[in-house]
Write a structure and sequence with these properties.
Blueprint: H1 2-33, H2 40-59, E1 63-64, E2 67-68, H3 70-96
Antiparallel strand pairs: 1-2
Amino acid sequence: MLSNLLIAVARVIDMVLTLYMWIIIARAVVSWVNADPYNSIVRFLYSVTEPVLSAVRQRLSVSYGGFDFSPILVILAIVFLQAFVVQSLLQMAVGLR
């Protein structure tokens, strides 16, 4: 039973991380095309991603030549979490069977 719980938690974490990665990508694309800042979708993308991106910008100098690398760093962190946390949970679940 604990094994099934760990598998379910791993899958949910993986889905949430994948969804957030796509939101980060959408935010980056929106920033390239100068979309209407009053659009509800644009406001949603900024409100969901700005806390994480601004935290990365504050801790690291990620802007070079006017290009902001913080979305790339956040996506790399998401990929790391998927490879480490999700896979570790799945391996623990398999070990409990």
